Amino acid sequence: MPALFRRVAEKDRKTIRLFVDGHEIEALEGDTLLVALLTRTRQLRHNEFDNAPRAGFCLMGACQDCWVWTEDGTQLRACSTPAQPGMRITTTEVPWLTNL
Amino acid sequence: MADEPVIVIGAGPAGTRAAQRLVQAGLRPVVIDENDRQGGQIYRRQPENFHRTPEKLYGTEAAKATALHTDFDLLRPHIDYHPGTTVWGVSDEGLMTVCGQDVTIVPFSRVIIASGATDRIMPVPGWTTPGAYSLGAAQIALKAQACAIGQKPVFMGTGPLLYLVAWQYLQAGARPAAVLDTSALSTRMKGLRRMASRARVVANGVRYMADLARAGVRLHAGITPRAIEASNNQVSGVTWCDSRGRLRQVSCDAVGIGYGLRSETQLADLLKCDFTFDPCFTQWRPHVDRNGRTSRPDVYLAGDGVLLRGADAAEAAGQLAACAVLRDGGHGVEDTEFTQLHETLAIMNRFGRGLAEAFPWPAHLARALPDETVVCRCENITAGEIRRAAGELDAPEMNRAKALTRPGMGRCQGRMCGLAAAEILAAARNVPVREVGRLRTAAPVKPLPLNCTVKS
Questions:
Q1: Closest CB to B450 among A29, A53, A99
Q2: Is B352 within 8 Å of B195 (Cβ atoms)?
Q3: Residues of B in contact with A96 (CB under 8 A)
Q4: Tell me: the pLDDT tens digits for B397-446?
Q5: Which of residues 129-158 of B touch A (CB under 8 A)?
Q6: For the domain with range A19-90, which CATH number is right: 3.40.630.30, 1.10.10.10, 1.10.760.10, 3.10.20.440?
Q7: pLDDT tens per residue across span B298-314
Q8: d(CA B446, CA B415)
């Protein structure tokens, strides 16, 4: 699948690995989750009302349109969360009863 | 709460200079910043393992950015610094903050809010498609993550940021497909009279436009946006009408949208500060005196979070608000310091007004938005739903409209759609936009994690 974002500099960083929807992906140390995902794919999540794909909008923590989840249900704003090695991320919401 | 600390919210240009002035007077302020690294948006820092130079990142503003970062680093031993921490509410005991999953109540004697601004957005059909971002987002992707939002982006909206971001993309090797500006050239010339007060800033803007034109990037003025086109759930083009009314199309794979800025005013609202309608920027904002004092004796505001004058003005306004805090708290501050800051800000005020005149908010576009256009991107509330609230349901103002058909009810709390929704409501009722008021703030001003815990 083609990516939305394109790296234009700072490409010589250490590679890290994390899991998105069960698939292992490579990212670079210092990436936000949003960048780790959108340099690989074209969307982050689906809107709850029409199920259409979304890929964030403001990148400054205001629009709340880049939420992803950890597999145990913690919601994360992808634009302001650093990607960490071994993270397990899902792009569909985890049923809320499991994360209390 | 006189023994409690002074709190500074935000560590951009205004917050940093405010904290610095308080430290100079011997205080130890608490600095709470939502970002993980100090600098705010315009002087946002890249992650520590990135290597681009300040010149590469901040261009003509590199020296100012470096000074702001260095000065803050020197302040660190003298302040209580809480990065990655959001102030989300207010209680009788103080400010409610969240860092990760930890909620804390922070008492204060006085608070300086320097919460900054976000892009002001006018929706357009297709703007929820992946690949459509705010202008600020396009810039953050480049500056903080060394990424372009696409291979050949279009930048659409109005204001100086349009040309700066397009120029930064050109420098980074992602040549923009076009720059589409709703302001007409004749309108820009009118604003130029006031903008002449800061010739260097104008010269930079002219240079960006000249460089873009020389690189073959088409700069269109006086356009009317029509739609962002999608193919396979990704932006594939933009249609617009040119200044002569002809329908045009440009292919692209991303769009950056922005029509100037809107102040982040939620905390002043929760603290019950009086608001006023600013006709220059056509938005409601907290009322402040020229030193940043609000209607509440313990709340002060500085920077783009109250008056949209840019980073240079924010530095001066931050220092000024700190001077006001110090004087009101019985510390000596020379009159000359106030006078000098007022003189600096008078130039910025004039320039800011010139910019607003040169690149006006295109309120008229709201009236023409098709009924089916999504306005609230959180909950997909359309222009037609807002018009239904205005007409059939007879909502006279924004909070009533929100209660009836939900514009601004979503989790961004109207940050992205609120100003456009107000224009749609006002247009549908044929009243000036100030008469439909502003969305009241509700805590938490940003969503909290479900599993957060209160720390004492």
A1: A99
A2: no
A3: 450
A4: 999 999 999 999 999 999 999 999 999 999 999 999 999 999 999 999 99
A5: 130-134, 136-137, 140-142, 144-151
A6: 3.10.20.440
A7: 999 999 999 999 999 99
A8: 10
